Queue: 2 jobs
Job 1
Amino acid sequence: MLANTADTYGSVSRTLHWLMALLIIGMLACGFLMGEFGRDEPLRPLLYNLHKSTGTLLLLLIALRVLWTLLNPKRLPLGGKNIASQVARLVHLGLYLLMIGLPLSGYLLVASGTSVKPFEFFGLFPLPKIAPNDWLHEAAEGVHGNLPWLAMALIALHIAGGLKRHFIQRDGTLARMWSS
Ligand code: HEM
Ligand code: HEM
């Protein structure tokens, strides 16, 4: 089934969840790694372009995901209204905000920079720039430099919660995100 129901995730939500999880974890690694390459190393521009292009793709994917979540019936949380479920829901909200804030700050950081050359989406076509703006550029740079740390902490908490529910509580939470 494509759509979610009150207690299952449909294939669209499941595919978006796992595809985006994979891309985001890859993007965190790529973000930290690419800065380690010297200016004259050929891999550096390649990694930067891959990072910017995949990040922009993630911006589109999160827009789709939010729209899809809003269009689908609200799922009943497994585990009722106990503290652990409330924390899990808060972490999900935090992850949504990060999935918007991370690529948006990255895009704004690049788009408001002084470089006259717009970057090309996977080398296919240039993406729009805005007028150079030092204030916006620096603010976005600050946000984009700090959010990854918050993201890693929340993702670790989210994974620990998922594994606890699978191996200790055995309440089917991981299974419903994995298969219909
Ligand atoms: C989910 C999406 C994204 C994640 C998880 C992510 C993650 C990261 C990380 C971990 C860093 C290294 C930060 C540091 O060294 O302190 C970084 C740097 C950077 N990111 Fe992203 N990023 C994302 C999206 C984007 C997008 C969409 C763009 C641009 C279109 C972008 C452009 C950049 C640039 C230019 C840097 C280098 C910044 C600098 O050296 O000051 N990122 N990113
Ligand atoms: C960057 C990585 C990840 C992000 C951003 C993320 C984000 C989310 C979000 C926002 C939800 C809420 C449901 C939705 O709206 O789609 C969710 C659910 C879930 N995630 Fe992740 N996730 C990530 C990685 C993982 C990993 C590696 C696991 C493996 C343990 C996992 C296990 C789950 C499970 C089991 C649920 C269902 C929770 C429930 O039904 O109450 N996630 N995830």
Job 2
Amino acid sequence: MTENRTAPLLLIADSHVQPNTKCEDEFFSMLDWIASTNYDVFFLGDNLDLWIASGSRYEADAHRRFLAWCEREKARRRVLMVEGNHEFYLKRHHDGCFTACSETFYKIGDILFMHGDVAQKRFGFHRCFRVFAKNAFGDWVMGWLPFGPAFAGIMKRFLSSGGLPDLKKLEKPLLYVEKRAKNLCRKFGVSHIIMGHFHHVVHRELGDGRKFDVIPAWKYRYEVGVLAADGSLEVLPWMEVKMKNEQRG
Ligand SMILES: [Mn+2]
């Protein structure tokens, strides 16, 4: 999927919003604010935790509220989404709520967006889990599975990342991602790769003007990426973006 970009783009990754938490209130306050701006918005995955879209019995008020927001706002701005490893069958069931929703990659101009798990080792846990779970059969099974929501609860604990991961432990996976990012640049004809999933802010130069960036997990400090129309990227708490805009008038 590909298109060209004009307005500044807000990038929101790994908010991992849980129902009835301070994080949920903060998240929807931010959406209210975005609705009052002219930003386009890109949800880079793992935004609502855990999201199985195979039927209403899995979806909470937060999911419905989020979808209603996206559906309303896509009339006024671009609302883009890539599925993370905590979102299942979103594209299959709710594609129409977004300007565009992708299970894997989304290309805008010379930038490629993804969640980040798709850039990990082919036979590693995340990629294998994707192949195993994210297909029509998985969706169908989850649709009728007795005690499905109980099973989803187990999955949620299993996938839960807990606190901020140790950056040292990410060194090896990120080295691999760096290699894969170069391949993805070639494959998709882009020079910039932007992803979530690793929870830390990361910037790597790949040579020949190519680069990749990781947008940090929103859930820790409510940080977003602001991608200007000229391609420059800044990461800061959404409240600061709001204040800066207010100062500018
Ligand atoms: Mn993730």
